[in-house]
Amino acid sequence: MNTIAEHIADFLKEYAPFNHLTFEELSEIATSIRVVNLEKHKILFQVNDVLHDSFYVVASGIISLSVIADSEETLLNKCTEGEIFGIRPFFAKNNYMMTAKAREESIVYAIPIAIFRPFVANNSDVLNYLLESFAVNTRNPKDKENLIGKLISDNVYYSGEKSEMQYFQSLSYNTSPLKTNSSAIVQDVAQIMTESLKNNIVVCDNNNPIGIITDTDMRSKIATGRYPITTTVDKIMSAPVITVMENVSLAEAQLLMLKYNVTHLCVTKDGTDKSNIKGIISENDLIIAQASNPGVLIKEIKRCQAPKELKQIRDRLTDLIQTSITKNIPVSHIFNIASEINLAIIKRSVELSILDLGSPPARFAWLSIGSQGRKEQLLLTDQDSILIFEDVSADKYREVKDYFLKLGKKTTTTLEEIGYTLCPNGHMGSNTQWCKSLTDWIKQYDNWMNTPGENSNEISSIFFDYEIAFGEQKIEDTISDVVYKNAKNNILFFDFLGNDALRKNSPLSFFKNFNVEDEGPNKNKFDIKTRAILPLVDGARLFALNFEVRGINNTYQRFKQFAINDPRHAEIYLNCGEAFLTLSKFRTLEGLKNDSSGQFINLDELSKLDRDKLKSALAPMRELEELIKSKFKLTQFS
């Protein structure tokens, strides 16, 4: 081995995933590595470039990875010594989705994929590392502190947990594959493939797959003259086939194609070649699946011109949620994806209203409140929002408010057409009570928080869960400043809010049976929203205000943060967080099954295991209740 190759191998062994290989293996790889010198600002590859035959490791210097979003270049990552990038050619066939540029004079090692592939296929640690890196789109999937966590809405690039969704989503594939038997003549099979416009046919024995013939087989084995056209298909078929279960994910399919160096997978009833063929997955199916990821949905949302188009995308989100739950994707991940798409839909709805009404007469902010504001809306439940516009002179106030009421009306109507029903309590930006100036909103929050109970019928705790969907971030920040200023040492407010959090009916009876509805259309059903989920939501909101936790609205994420803020009670908070995810999953499954809000669970339809799991998820609520009573010394409003 030459000195340069030995030096490269010695360098690589210190970094993942190369540290999973032996020095002998690295030495073999190093002899084929190309050293690339890049001047400052030199581009190695850019968005839409055809994929290279190599991936890269930074030997020295810094390589920036960026995308173009809203006509601006957005930096995603900076790769430094030992970090890998440009691994898209391992897992995808479409062009590069980002730009790699030298931020300073740099040296990178170009590692040929053809040379490295066998080591990936035979080493699960290396394969898993590359798959995680591609899915998470970060230079180091184990380095959680450096995850960017920002959605680039105009690109299919996702960072952090968001990107994992597309790699666990199920695939659409050909469920009616062409089939033949091993004694069929190649010429006859070629004719069938041509007439059917298919590039593959499965060879079966009693409907069990034993081989596959593709256009490649026809070209390499028949067109070259290696076999006559009159030969039987068993002579040219690729065998054995690689088989998978019906609900195989994109990640699993990519992994198997990479590991076995094949371009097709056979879907069978039990995932083995000993059961009936159910379909065929091709490389093209993987490319199509990648084009249906959440980032693409958001890109499509930005182009929508009518509510019906937005509704189609929201329907696709429902399908994605359904598939993700079936695949046992963590609910926390599903929340991340759904919230970004929901917010994008709301934003586009506001934009369409502005296009119709003309430019706003003042700056404003459209805030989603309630479950949308907490980023917890998986089902198509009702919409909740408020509209805040900047202060204007008294002579313009009426005119400005009239514009924003029209904007609110158009937007809520659009959202209703998409499938988000109107809030039964009127908590929407189209309501004159919830569409007003910044000063009026400040007075509203001052009144709610400093004189709680005087107008208790007006206060709704969901107004303290908000997320900006459109408009000026400074307006939302101002409201947050007011809220946390008023919350500081406000014993009366926390007394009121704490009692409100404990006012929900108990989910279980004294004998630990579920408390179900006594009458009405949902008689004998369990109200999972009111009795189980809302107490956790209310408790999390209460502690978030008390601990001054800003920027974390999701109930699960709030409980995780509380465990850091208050380590003495960390176990209670973490148990409550997990309980919230479990309960949310039960509600979502109920809603998807019955095309409803999922609020009422028919316990008779649950298995004993699920009933026990549901009951276990209610256990942490008692500890949370005791913690609230102890911490906030509830008295006046008890």
If you had to describe this structure to a student in words, what would you say it looks like?
With 638 residues, the chain is of the alpha+beta class. 46% of the residues lie in helices and 15% in strands. It has 22 helices and 20 strands. The strands form six sheets. It has a four-stranded antiparallel β-sheet with strand order 1-8-3-6. It has a four-stranded antiparallel β-sheet with strand order 2-7-4-5, with no helix packed on it. Helix 7 links the parallel strand 9 (179-181) and strand 10 (200-205). Helix 16 runs parallel beside helix 17 (473-487) and helix 19 crosses helix 20. Residues 136-165 have low confidence and may be disordered.
Write the layout of secondary structure elements.
Layout: H1 3-12, H2 23-30, E1 34-38, E2 43-45, E3 54-60, E4 63-69, E5 72-79, E6 84-85, H3 88-91, E7 99-102, E8 106-112, H4 113-121, H5 124-136, H6 164-168, E9 179-181, H7 186-196, E10 200-205, E11 208-214, H8 215-223, E12 243-244, H9 250-260, E13 264-268, E14 277-282, H10 283-290, H11 294-301, H12 307-326, H13 331-357, E15 364-369, H14 370-373, E16 385-389, H15 394-418, E17 435-437, H16 438-450, E18 466-471, H17 473-487, H18 491-501, E19 526-527, H19 528-546, H20 555-565, H21 570-594, E20 600-601, H22 608-632
Parallel strand pairs: 9-10, 12-13, 16-17
Antiparallel strand pairs: 1-8, 2-7, 3-6, 3-8, 4-5, 4-7, 10-11, 13-14, 15-16, 15-18, 19-20
Helix pairs in contact: 1-2, 9-10, 11-12, 11-13, 12-13, 12-15, 13-15, 16-17, 18-19, 19-20, 19-21, 19-22, 20-21, 21-22
